[in-house]
Amino acid sequence: MDLKQLKYFLCLAREGNVTRAARQLNIVQPALSMQIAKLEKSVGKQLFFRSAHGVSLTPAGETLTSLATSIIQNVDHAQEEMARLDGRISGRVSIGMITSAAQSTLAASTAKIAARYPEIQLLVCEGYTETLVEWVATGQLDIAIVNVPAGKHNLIAHHILDEEMMLAQGRDNKAVLPNPVPYKKLKDLGLVLPSRRHGLRRILDAAATEAEIALAPRLEVDTLSAVCEVVATTDLITVLPGIALYPHLAAGRISAHRLRKPSIQRTVAWLTHPRRAVSAAMSAVMEVLTEDLQSAASSASRLVSR
Asked: Do the domain assignments include residue 243?
């Protein structure tokens, strides 16, 4: 077997379809099939179940996926370290981010990374905390930026920030609210919140249990930019972290209030696998993202009604 075959194998395992995998690899389907056949012959095992609907991994394929992922990551790391000897920071970094982090700073941060580190290849996706944790654990991502605690896992957490959750209403909303707002007051308000599968909603529900109330939102929307737009244009109210609210706060379209009894904080961290060394490229990328997220949270906090 060789590295090319392992990369082709991992792509096919990820896509589950020869056509899509060949397109991702920019090769023709027969070439991909031939390399997979050679790999199966080399290891003496069938790696995929074939059907009219695509392919799926055999038990041997599942085992090779874990081994091949580690091999490819180690080769990438070796290449990065060799480049660093020449004073260059290079390599491929794959990151998954929760939406509240991505929508606030991702555009500016990625532009900064591209300008500062032209030899870093960056891949970024958005997702729920649980999904991103799983992808780091299985080697599909190098880093996950998530809310913590993020359930049971054996990953290494690197702290980014602690941030208040804030109540937000549209500037034209006539509701007069105390400041800070008692958390129990939420049961009397028309709310738009993320759904229960969203990590932020779980934080809110835990606080509701502590306050001995039940949250009953009129709308449940997981796209946080849409939540903010609804709040800015209707009488509905939300509770979100400051960095998710910041663009609308800065534009003067919404106002925010602090909460009490209880006040709510969420912690954001970046997770890595304990068996994968943090490369120079990963550190460089996370230095930029951490700085920008902390700056956005601080800016949002200054715009909250006092």
From this structure: yes
